[in-house]
Design goal:
The protein has one domain: Na+/H+ antiporter like fold (Up-down Bundle), CATH 1.20.1530. It contains 16 helices and 2 strands. Keywords: Cell membrane, Membrane, Transmembrane, Transmembrane helix, Transport.
């Protein structure tokens, strides 16, 4: 397939078009309602808490309520490996991005560049494109395991200057999204084990099958349905929260900060591009090939703005707090504008056949 046909195919894909239009329009709606005063000053923070505590855990767990096959399992393991490897790579690569800065500012910008808002910004977009129960959401959840490990270890140590604390380890593993991800992943992996009780069910298409008793999407839909409703809230509430947050902060102050612009370029353009180049090399050499869905998921996750936790570290430990705030705001605006570009770009790359 040539590039022209790939571009045409991408814009004929209604899931892609709907995801792009939905993301931008709902973010703009949140922005407008905040500016108008319909949303209060803390509304964005409240929405964020709801999404992180309820909607995203439900989305993560529900994504694993599907059958397992070798191809999906292999892809998930490749995504897991890459999700760990890329942060090790970025830790070293970002050092060269900020050589002209002093150590304090360089350290802060490196951490902010390493860690994007994959959970709050990335996963809802992935769910919007592929659906809340798609394999892509599995890949996104698995990819985030490495993100959590490095964010709460390397990120904390780098920003605080302290050794790893017990409270951070607790936060790493007892986060609702992490618990839901690991619970869903384990149940998904062992569902065909002989020692797991199975039940005979008939799916919506009338096909009879034997599934593990905890496949609540088939064995107990009255339990699964509330989780489906909650998972469905993740994308719209996250986008409204992003828009509301943007409407609460002065963009003009951030817009005159050259360091924030340079950072936003690195975070939203260079980091995803590094991923594409390295993943293409790995695919061509058959070292760690990823599928088209996995590639699109990874790039969307890496094209996200500053992680809230990373900017919180900067503020809490008084490490370039103003810069971190400006960088967070500006990168969110840039990521919102450029996300359609990355969605289209990954769709075109997928259509070339390099990622199968």
């Amino acid at each position: 397939m040539n590039i022209a046909n790939a571009i045409q195919s991408t814009f004929e894909n209604m899931n892609v078009v709907k995801a792009i239009v939905s993301t931008i329009s709902i973010i703009l709606l949140g922005f407008y309602l905040r500016k108008r005063g319909t949303f209060g000053e803390n509304f964005g923070k409240v929405l964020t808490k709801v999404v992180l505590a309820v909607a995203l855990p439900a989305l993560a767990f529900n994504s694993f309520m599907q059958g397992i096959d070798y191809a999906t399992f292999k892809q998930s393991m490749n995504v897991l490996i890459w999700g760990i490897a890329i942060y090790i790579i970025l830790i070293f690569v970002t050092k060269f991005m900020y050589l002209k800065y002093g150590k304090d500012k360089s350290d802060v910008l490196r951490v902010l560049t390493d860690f994007g808002s994959t959970t709050f910004f990335g996963i809802p977009i992935v769910a919007g494109i592929f659906g809340p129960t798609s394999k892509a959401v599995i890949y996104a959840s698995v990819f985030n395991i490495g993100y959590r490990i490095f964010l709460y270890s390397y990120g904390y140590i780098k920003m605080s200057g302290l050794k790893m604390e017990a409270k951070n380890i607790k936060q790493m593993f007892l986060n609702p999204i992490v618990i839901a991800t690991f619970a869903g992943l384990i149940l998904w992996l062992i569902q065909n084990a002989s020692w797991i009780p199975h039940m005979n069910v008939v799916d919506a298409a009338g096909v009879k099958s034997s599934v593990s008793f905890y496949r609540i999407d088939l064995t107990a839909p009255w339990i699964s349905q509330p989780l489906i409703y909650l998972a469905g809230l993740a994308s719209p509430l996250a986008w409204l929260g992003i828009g509301s947050t943007l409407g609460s902060i002065s963009l003009s102050k951030a817009a005159v900060d050259r360091d924030s612009w340079y950072y936003s370029f690195n975070k939203v353009l260079l980091v995803p591009l590094i991923n594409i180049v390295l993943l293409a090399i790995l695919a061509l050499t058959h070292v760690l090939p990823v599928s088209a869905d996995a590639l699109e998921t990874i790039i969307i996750m890496m094209a996200t703005p500053t992680a809230a936790v990373a900017s919180t570290y900067a503020i809490a430990f008084d490490r370039q707090a103003v810069l971190a705030s400006n960088a967070s705001l500006l990168s969110t605006v840039v990521a919102t504008v450029l996300m359609p570009f990355w969605i289209v770009a990954t769709q075109i790359l997928s259509a070339t056949g390099l990622f199968k």
